[in-house]
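Protocol step 4 of 6: structure prediction from sequence.
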Amino acid sequence: MNRVGHLTRGGDGDSAQSKIDFLRRNPVTSKLDAVVAGRFVTVPGSSMDPSIRSVQAAELVGANLNRAAR
């Protein structure tokens, strides 16, 4: 599973979708199992900085891992 940060700054490459598109187009990363299977977890960029919001990111990733394991 790939964790993809979604940033709201609006710059090139900030959105989660642009990162996913890059991973799918790149000749190396496009071969990764998680990319081939489309296993991505989108995490708000604000939750990726070390803060109390990191708990939200950990819970989001954990919930998606739990779903993927079923």
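Step 5 (inspection) to follow. The chain has a mean pLDDT of 82.
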